[in-house]
Structure formats: C-alpha cells, structure tokens
Write a structure and sequence with these properties.
single chain, mainly alpha, about 375 residues, globular, 18 helices
C-alpha cells in the first residue's frame, strides 16, 4: 500500500495519540516485567548443584540466598512453568479477537491488566502450593495478558494516522504498580477520538480525516477466513510472527538462567544484565518506528519495502548474534555485548511484520491480528 493520505499535520508533542502510546507502553512494560519476573527469581528458587564459588559472589550473599524457598524442580518442570503462561494466551486469543470489536477496549484492557497484576501478587503462594498451582496461576495470568496484548491492536485502527502508525506502535510495544496503572488506564483512555472530552479539535480532525477512507469501508463485514487462509502475505506474517515470538520468548525466559550459569554473578547483577537487552530493544524499536514512518512520509521507500526491510533485520540479526554469543564470546564483556545484540535487534520487527496486519487488513482490526497470532503460536 502506497502513501495515500496527506492530511494537514498537527503537533505531535503533548498530543493525545502520543500520550496514549506512552500509556500503552507503561502497560506493556508492566506486562512484560510480570512475565519475566519468574525467570529471574527461578535462579534462586530451585536447587542447583552448580557452585558459585567465584569472586563476584560473596559469602554474605550466598547466605542470603539460602534463606529463600528452594524447590526441587527439574529443568523440564521449569520449562513447563515458564511456558504455561502461553497456554492462557493461546486460549484467550479466539474470543478476544472478536470481542475487541464489539465491547469497550477501555474496560477490557484495564480489567486484564488488573487481573494480571493480581495473579503476580499471589504467585508466591501458588508456588508454595505445588507445581500444579503455579502452572494454573501462570496460565490464568496468560489469559489476562493475552487479552490486553491482543485487544490493544484494535486501538490503532481508530487512533493511529497511517503515516504515524509505525512510531506509535513501536513506542507502545518497546517494554503491585500494575493495579494502579489499570485504574489510570480506565480514567484516561477512550475507545474513539470522537468521544474523548479533552482532545483538541485540530488533532481530532487530523486523526479522523486520515482514517476516513478506512473507516468508510469498515462497516460490519464478516471475516473472510477462507480468503485469508489462501493469502500468501498472511502466511508470510504468520511464519514471521512465529519466528519472532519463539526467539523473543526463549531469550525472555532463559536469559537469567544463561547469565547465572555462564557469568556466575549474584542475583542483583543478574537482574541488571538480563534487563540490558530489553533496554536496547526499547531504543531500537522506537528508532525503527520513526525510521519507517520517515521513509514512508518522504516517499523514500514504498510501504512493502519498508515492512520487508525491518522484518528481515528483526528476524535475521537475533540468530546471527546468537551464534556469535555461543562461538565468539571469549570474555565477560564480549558475552554481554552479544547477549544485548541477540535480545534487542528483534525489535526491528515492530516496524515490520508486527504491524503489517494493519496495513493489509485495517478494516478487520483485532480479528485479523487474532488469527495471525493464533496461527503463529500454534505452529
């Protein structure tokens, strides 16, 4: 799809659409931190025969670790616990994709964020109850997080001008407070720019005029499932999404374990080193979004070329640097550099395949994205 929209721009600084993107960023950061928290704490929750007799770990710190609860969970059990959150995400995608077009996104996301935060609070008690309880708790948390992550894609159908879709989406996706943010979300977000009481007239007209063509052709139309299944672009997005999510989640769950077993640092240092890839991923994602919108608005590259470029970078660079991490890391600092590059360069996909569904099927919003996500995770 080429550049078809050229309405008069309004200032983006202090605009509600960018404020909404930042609010979504906070929500997504909380969701990802809740998802990753167990990966870090697992290092000290389970029995380990690997001695940490290295200079980076003091005797006092080792004694502090022994005070924590220790569980005899095998690596296989730990993998099931890590992945159990995706059971809930997979199950909830089918109804959320349809409900996001029929019910208030405002209420869906605020409720989902609140419940995800609540399950995070009771996770320690679930762990004490046994493996089945913590798996069930993580799966229920996955239902909540899946609802929030899938439903928010429908937001940009009404709030994102096409020429700003890359930067707004990448900004929102790049990263006990979750309960408070869920209340803040409920108070500040409105499902449609037309109903927002505080948005300026110029910004409202800018958003609505840029989306006018899409909205005029998006009346109640059923989802053409057969046509979508036969669509090669859709399958390209499906397989690309599968590769992205697989790589990203492997890094998300096992980075603390990798750092613990290879670098032998204490828990505090482990948390800092494990967070570094995602700090850079946040920066790369925002850079990719702005670069994609810049190329599109200046007619430097066609939209198809832009999506293919950033999808290729986001899918090729992580495994390349992952191989470097395994075979070219000969020191502490080289390991950290390759670990950061492996975990962060996948965020280029935020300006590629992760928003490509809105380019090829904007009228179906959440329905299309739920089907893409469903197929990619089921592979």
């Amino acid at each position: 799809m080429d550049n078809q929209f050229s309405p008069r721009k309004v200032p983006s600084v202090c605009s509600f659409r960018y404020g909404l993107s930042l609010l979504l960023y906070v929500c997504n950061s909380i969701i990802m931190s809740q998802r990753m928290c167990l990966s870090l704490t697992m290092v000290v929750m389970v029995n380990s025969s690997d001695p940490h007799g290295v200079p980076n770990t003091s005797t006092e710190e080792s004694l502090d670790v022994t005070k924590n609860p220790v569980y005899n969970w095998s690596p296989k059990t730990q993998g099931i616990i890590f992945s159990s959150i995706f059971y809930g995400i997979l199950i909830i995608q089918i109804p959320v994709g349809y409900l996001s077009e029929k019910y208030s996104i405002k209420k869906m996301i605020s409720s989902a964020l609140f419940l995800s935060s609540l399950f995070s609070l009771i996770l320690p008690m679930a762990a004490e109850g046994g493996e089945a309880w913590i798996i069930a708790c993580r799966a229920a948390q996955g239902v909540s997080q899946g609802s929030a992550l899938i439903a928010q894609h429908a937001i940009w159908v009404k709030w994102a001008p096409p020429l700003e879709r890359g930067r707004l989406t990448s900004l929102s996706l790049s990263g006990a407070c979750g309960c408070g943010v869920s209340l803040l979300w409920f108070l500040l977000f409105y499902d449609d720019p037309k109903t927002h009481p505080c948005i300026s007239v110029s910004e409202k007209n800018y958003i609505l005029s840029s989306l006018n063509q899409q909205q005029s052709s998006s009346r109640t139309r059923s989802l053409p499932i057969k046509a979508m299944i036969k669509s090669l672009p859709l399958w390209a997005i499906v397989f690309g999404s599968f590769a992205f999510h697989w790589t990203n989640n492997i890094m998300l769950f096992y980075t603390p374990t990798f750092v613990d077993s290879n670098l032998h640092v204490n828990v505090k240092e482990n948390g800092l080193l494990s967070a570094l890839p995602y700090l850079f991923a946040w920066s790369f994602g925002i850079l990719a979004g702005h670069a994609a919108d810049f190329f599109l608005s200046r007619n430097i590259l066609r939209l198809n070329t832009i999506r293919k470029l950033f999808s290729t970078l986001g899918l090729f660079l992580p495994p390349f640097f992952g191989l470097c991490l395994l075979h070219l890391s000969f020191s502490f600092y080289s390991t950290i550099v390759f670990l950061i590059l492996t975990g962060s360069t996948g965020s280029f996909c935020m300006a590629g395949l992760l928003i490509n569904g809105l380019d090829i099927a904007p009228r179906y919003g959440g329905k299309h994205l739920f089907l893409v996500s469903k197929l990619s995770r089921a592979l």
